[in-house]
Design brief:
alpha+beta, rod-shaped, 93 residues, five-stranded antiparallel β-sheet, 2 helices
Length: 93
């Protein structure tokens, strides 16, 4: 009888370890990124996942308009393409 429990216990133990070391940290990371993107506001300086640096000038639903370069060219990007946000108030202080 104890052999049956051990054959069942080992896969369950692997699943628990897999959950706590891989799945749960990834879910926390995804939640943090989702919150960062939802907290973006006009005036924030961002870096897109493609490496483009720009400043947010308009937010409408899931579309963000950014200014890029010295000629202040504007174009639209999807909100999910924000890779990092550098708040303009944090950089000035």
């Amino acid at each position: 009888m104890p052999a049956n429990y051990s054959t069942f216990l080992l896969p369950v133990l692997f699943l628990v370890i897999f959950y706590f070391f891989i799945i749960r940290p990834q879910q926390k990371k995804d939640k943090k990124i989702r919150e960062m993107r939802n907290n973006a506001k006009v005036g924030d300086e961002i870096v897109t996942i493609g490496g483009i640096y720009g400043k947010i000038v308009k937010i409408k639903d899931d579309v963000i308009t950014i200014e890029v370069g010295s000629d202040k060219a504007r174009f639209n990007i999807a909100k999910w393409s924000i890779g990092n946000i550098h708040n303009s108030t944090e950089t000035e202080e």
